[in-house]
Design goal:
The structure is a homoheptamer.
Chain A (H helix, E strand, L loop, with lengths): L9 H13 L5 H15 L20 H10 L5 E6 L2 E7 L6 E3 L3 E4 L3 E7 L1 H14 L4 H14 L11 E7 L6 E5 L5 E4 L1 E4 L3 H11 L5 H11 L6 E7 L1
Antiparallel strand pairs in A: 1-2, 1-9, 2-10, 4-5, 5-6, 6-7, 7-8
């Protein structure tokens, strides 16, 4: 469990104490947890009601897209780094003896590789669309993927796709690394992290990233991931 | 019935006693059951409202997919184990004199067999899709099945499929065993259990699994299932 | 009316007496009935809200499928029994002088017969699908029927089919008897009962069923049905 | 207005008297009517919520189909009677001087006639389907009509058809009379009544029906209908 | 404004007086109006909830169809009268200097004319369907119009058409005048009124209608309409 | 802000004064505004619930169509006037230095021009339908436009179009000016105003309209619009 | 955080002080924030309920289109300016070392460029529609874009597109700059700003805009944007 600390006035504290002494709660911590649950179930986002639909809230935000971004950050982290003449994608592999293979990095043809986080089937169907579409350029590749993301965020009979992708593409003259998020937004990056702890990993990459060799990129990626026992590592080169 | 024990303060206890003495409840146990039902019908998951729809909750989870996983774990357990040169699927058979045949393990062509748990028709339609699609490789097989799972978890006018599958495939050079869950997630495994008690059976397999012969695999599967009187056992070999 | 008996504390009883003396109810029985109706309309299943939709409840159940099973058990009972070289389906016929014919057992070609309970048009459309599909094997026959059941239990814009079927098929080498329920689940049986009192009839069949001759099977079926004045009886043989 | 009588305790009665003396109601009768309206708008059927949708209620009933049956019994009554070599359909005609023709009995080709009650356009569209389909046998005729009924009772985006039909068909060797109700259920009958007072008329037919000549059948039909001033009468013969 | 008169007990009256003296209302009339608005917004029809949907209410009525009939009676009245060898349709014309033409009576080919009330575009689309379908007989004409009415009253994603039509047709041997209402019901009439005050006009026609000459029919129609300054008058003859 | 004046009893006034002295409101005006907002959010139209859907209210009105009419009257006013041999459409132009062109009057071919108010894209799509349909007569033109309006007011999955149109057409022998409103109603007029202040402008036109020359018509239109600095003026002539 | 200042009566202030002293809030500021949140979640727009749907509110507004406009103003600002013989689009570029490229200005063929703000995928799909449609004139270009905006604001199963566009087109004789907003409204401008602070930037452009040379236009655009370190600048010329 996560510890939360907060200061409360003495009067209130004494009142809480009496609640614990006379009420059904075993401790003040238990009382606070119950209060939080009760509060969370009534005090939703200001835009309550707007967040269950693919519609626009009064403040111009589309909450389902933001919740989908939350969902896309679930699962093991992954990192992508561009180097001179190529790009590397890396992610830890599970170590259970029963698991023979997990699919986190998929090759699409010889010149494209995709790393994903979030709902596995959402990611798989995005990759499937890519396989079927056979794009000739990175721009075309982006159109095909954004299309599928977009159809699911603009239609009230669907839900947004809960998957982030890092796509390394050598379809053009240069190796390009693109990050896709559930809203269908794309950014071309030199290095990026997705999945659990993406924010912390991104800050680390911002500090340490230098465009270098394939070996340097792979080394940085694995160190950032905490040097896992087993890892999937895929290189895409021109 | 399951027994639940909990400690309550003496003050509360005395109050409950008086409620039983003066109120309509025959015993304290009955009073507690009534309280639990009343509580359960008001105190849903924090993300109440999100769990009846194929939409994303504020914490990034899609509750319908999780409930479907619950549904997929209903029904008799089943086990799949990979061995050198093949894989075995096993599940207990019903013993009622009136039942002549139950379908738990289906062959799809000569090189694929499927074991399922959960809603029978959901599983049957997944298998039907496989028969119609006639995949040439295990990857293609996975695309076809995930597609059907995914269509039902991403569309608000449908419900997720409540079926887990264990698919043994000899379509490639090697025999591969893949587990599919209602979210469309897939894992390639050496051994796995689905259905009722899947969690306990998986822990047992984690301890005892060694890649061995066909006979050893079948023996382990049946022992894990509690050595049932009757069982369906299907082998897939290269 | 069904009589329900329950014990209540004396205090409560006296309170109820006073309610009858001073209030609008003519008797204590009337008061209890009113209380039950009031309770039933507020205290639905724990998973209230999930039971009006083709969606999965938190406990993994799909309530609409269970309610449809309730609906499928309405109407006159029917029995099917396999014997050496064939199978018999039987159900009582109505005896009103105005009714010239009721359709409970339908022949589909020369080798298939179907007995149904529940909503008549749901059953008729299932049979119609069978006639149109012209299956060549019992497996194919099952795929076609399950498909129609499934489409109605997985789509939120439809309702599940409230019909149970007992299908006797001589499409294969052997005569096979299959039971279908509203969830699309199928079981191959030697003997089975559907419709009103199906549970009691099944227990009776479990005790008395032996694979015998056509005459023995028909005799058992009619006795189990209470030897009705008029009955529809259909035999399917290889 | 319909008179309802009920006994109430004296205490309650005195309380009602005082309500009339001091409150806004002009009489006790008015007070009771107001109470009934108030009650009816809060105390719906036990399965409240299920009755506005084409879905299954917890008790296995589909309320919309039952309400549609209510709707189908609105409008003038009609009677059909089979005799040796034919069948007759009869229904009273309106007598207003402004009305030149009302459509209650429709001929469909030379060998089929249809009498209907309930929503006029629902009936007309059922008949239209029959005209378009041009069935060759009575069974085919039944499939076409049940299909249309069924599509409207199984789909949540539609409403059930509020029409009962009595169809006299000489498409086969014999003249057959079939009754269709909004759930798509069909019964083949020797005699039947639909529309207003159908229940009382059916009981009368049960007592007096004998298979006789065309004249006897028509006489019975008209007498049962109360010997109206004007009537539509249609005979179908082989 | 419409004046409503009602008798109330003196006690209540005095209470209302005091409410006016001490409360925010300027007069007793104002108080009554506020009370009516408050009552109307809470005390809907007994079948509240059923009346916003194209579904059947517990009493077998489809409220949307009845509300649509209300809507169809809005707008200027119109009258149709059959005479020997033809029929006349008549309706007052607006007299505003800015309006150059209003469409109330439409010719469809040489042998059909249509007078409408209610939502103008609903009527226009019905007429458009007629133009496109080019029916050869009056029965065919009725099928085409009823079809469009019916599709809008049986489908939950649509609303009923709020238009009444009076169609004069010389497509057959005789000139026929048919009234269509929003439920798709049709009546063949010798004379009929639609739109505002339709009920009073119909009673007038019932008293004065005699089948006569074209001139007599037109004279009766215009007198019934109050001899308006300007009027559209269309004759259809064989 | 608009000033609203109302008389209240002295008692109430004193009560309001005390509320201002002791409560959070800075003045009585502020208190009244808050009261109005609170009232408006609870005391909706009598037919509350019917006004968010394309369905018919109990009084036969379709509120969405009336709200759409409100929406269609937003935006700058426009005027159309028929003269001998032609018609003129006129509307003020914006004067901001940044705006190079606003589209209020669109030519469709050589013989038709359209002036619109309300939602710009709704109007544009109506005009687009006209361009695509290429009508040969004014009646055909009206059918095409009404069709699009109608589809959006009769279907619950769409919203009504919030646009009024004034269409000047020389497709026939005469120049005709037609007004279209969001319900799909059309009126042929000699002169008309749409958009903001349409009602006042119409009254002015009723007083001053005489059929005259092109110059007189344009002069009247511009004067009615308040002689704006810049204006779009389009003439359609035979 | 934004600071809000407001005057309150002393009495109220003292009451708030006491709430802070005795209640759970740490400061008066915290108390006010809590009050605002509580208020905002209950006191929505007067037309509450209308703002979650693509439907018309009683005041004729379509709130979803207004909320979408809010959403379209999120993200970095952009400016477009017409000059003699061409037009320039400009927007700041992100400066993070990890980002290699952000797409804010897209070329569509040689004669069109598009600058966007709001939801990135909404903008991308608008641009994609443009690429596919290959318009030959600016009017055609506008029809294609408005069509897509419109389909998403008129259909209840979709949500409006949250993207503003500035399109520079040299498809005609002149270079034209058009602004598109989420309602599908378009304005042709000499200069315009979109995205964050659009209102302030527009006022600045209104003051400083003069039609000049390409260099002057680019200079004005960049100065208005605050002379960012990095910027995307695209020129479109005839």
């Amino acid at each position: 469990m996560t510890e939360i600390r907060t200061a409360i006035p003495d009067d209130i504290d004494r009142y809480l104490d009496s609640l614990v002494r006379t009420g059904p709660f075993a401790s003040k911590a238990e009382l606070v947890r119950a209060a939080l649950v009760a509060f969370a179930s009534t005090a939703g986002p200001i835009a309550a009601g707007f967040d269950l639909e693919n519609m626009v809230a009064p403040d111009g935000r589309i909450y389902q897209l933001e919740y989908a971004r939350e969902g896309a950050m679930r699962g093991a982290p992954g990192i992508g780094i561009v180097y001179a003449g190529g790009a590397v994608l890396a992610t830890p592999s599970p170590t259970s003896p029963l698991i023979s293979k997990v699919e986190k990095i998929h090759r699409v043809g010889e010149k494209v590789a995709v790393l994903s986080s979030g709902i596995v089937s959402d990611a798989r169907m995005l990759i499937h669309r890519l396989r079927t579409a056979e794009p000739k350029t990175t721009e075309e590749l982006k159109d095909r993927l954004v299309e599928l993301y977009w159809e699911h965020g603009v239609d009230r009979t669907k839900r947004p796709l809960c998957a982030q992708l890092l796509v390394a593409s050598a379809l053009d003259d240069d190796t390009r690394l693109t990050e896709f998020d559930p809203s269908g937004a794309t950014v071309e990056v030199n290095a990026a992290a997705i999945g659990m702890n993406a924010k912390a990993l991104t800050e680390l990459l911002e500090k340490r990233y230098r465009r270098g060799s394939a070996q340097q990129a792979e080394k940085l990626a694995l160190e950032a991931l905490g040097s896992p026992d087993k890892a999937d590592v895929v290189h895409v080169t021109i």
